[in-house]
Amino acid sequence: MKHKMIDGNNVSYVVSELSDSDAVEWDRYVDQHPEGTLFHKFAWASLIKEVLHQKPRYLKAQNSAGNIVGVLPLVNLKSVVFGNFLVSMPYFNYGGVLADSEEVASVLVNASTDIADKLNVSHVQYRCSSECMTESFPVAKHKVNMILDLPESQDALGKSIGSKRRSQIKRPIREGVSHKIGGRELIDDFYEVFCINMRDLGTPVYSKKLFESIFDTFPDNTNICVVYWEGKPVSTGFLMHYKNKLEIPWASTVRYANRISVNMYLYWQILSYAIETGFKQFDFGRSTVDAGTYKFKKQWGAQPQQCYWYHYVPKGKKLPDLSPDNESFGLAIKVWQKLPIPITKIIGPHIVKAIP
Fold it and tell me: Which of 35, 95, 157, 271 gives 127 a disulfide partner, CB atoms 3.0 to 4.6 angstroms apart?
């Protein structure tokens, strides 16, 4: 696909789909853009295609000199249950268009809606962390990313969270917990806790291959923290970093360990690691305002950063509700919570790859 498009200032741009030869220039553009994230990087396209078997439709805009002036990473998700739609970016909190100007952004979005119409999708979702769309698309603002500006020392962090939370952190220490922060060697322990937690939540689980592939693709950007109690992994966080920010896309704790506040210990160790390593911010991930996870993250001092999830809905289509809060998924969630863990590991990856 290649389009020559003209913006409102009569400047022409060529919009085309990504090829492997564009990788270096694409990543260079993401690295220099102030809103570029790790999840805009080129390598996700092949990872998603090979591991999750969904089709990337990455778009780049070039000026008359052939330089990239804007990018839009899109993925076409398809399944019998959830339908056919496009997301930038699925599975993560960040995506959307990056561009040198509003005009370039508009050109890329117009190209994406052309693709949407040709593919007969139900909708396109653009996950932006700012008001990045000039088009009058409906926008969902029910989610926020919880961001903590990290203090200069662990002592300063301890003072900021107050005596109650400090005592909660000491409780698991008295119970004899320990932790490790490492790399690929901790995947098995991470995945054991992750699968149990996802089953208990009624959520299909990703394959272990996905996490292995993330380590293989981004070895310098990825770590795992695991907390152990009585010789078993009971709490864990999958960590990814980019620029000056450390993020936790996945965190899990087995339910029986909640009684000793082991998740407080987990986050204390992760935040201490972030401070010692020199990161400036910690991203707790997205939450619904005033929900339980929002309040948990807020107690650490995290502040909400509004998510802007824009939607293009082709004429004659209706935006589906794919959120876990959809009542039609209620029975499926209850059934999933009763499945044996080995079964969820087999079935889950085939389902979750189509859930954005």
Answer: 95
CA distance 62 to 13: 6
**What tokens appear for 334 in the block?**
């209850």
Give, as one character, the DSSP assignment of residue 138.
-
d(CA 203, CA 97): 29
Would residue 350 count as lying in a domain?
no
C-alpha distances out from residue 300 to 25, 61, 275, 277, 284, Å: 38, 40, 14, 19, 10
Helix H or strand E segment including 191: helix 187-201
User: Is 246 inside any structural domain?
Assistant: yes
Residue 196 lies in a domain: yes
240's tokens: 């990814």
Find out whether the peptide bond into 89 is cis, omega within 30 degrees of 0.
Answer: yes
CA pair distance 38, 285, nearest whole angstrom: 14
Cα(351)–Cα(81) distance, integer angstroms: 9
233 SS3 class: strand
**Looking at the chain, how many residues does it have?**
356
24: Cβ–Cβ under 8 A, 6 or more apart, which residues?
none
Give the CATH number of the domain where residue 87 resides: 3.40.630.30
Contacts of 321 (CB under 8 A, 6+ apart): none
Considering the domain architecture, whether residues 179 and 95 belong to the same structural domain is answered as: no
Sheet of 245-253: strand order equals 178-182, 222-229, 232-242, 245-253, 281-288, 143-149, 303-306
Predicted TM-score (pTM) of the model is 0.91
**pLDDT tens track, the chain, 356 positions:** 555 555 555 678 889 988 878 899 999 999 999 999 999 999 999 999 999 999 999 999 999 899 999 999 999 999 888 889 999 999 999 999 999 998 899 999 999 999 999 999 999 999 988 887 766 788 888 899 999 999 999 999 999 999 999 999 999 999 999 999 999 999 999 999 999 999 999 999 999 999 999 999 999 999 999 999 999 999 999 999 999 999 999 999 999 999 999 999 999 999 999 999 999 999 999 999 989 999 999 999 999 999 999 999 988 877 776 666 666 667 788 888 988 999 999 999 998 898 88
Do 11 and 60 lie in one domain? The reply is yes
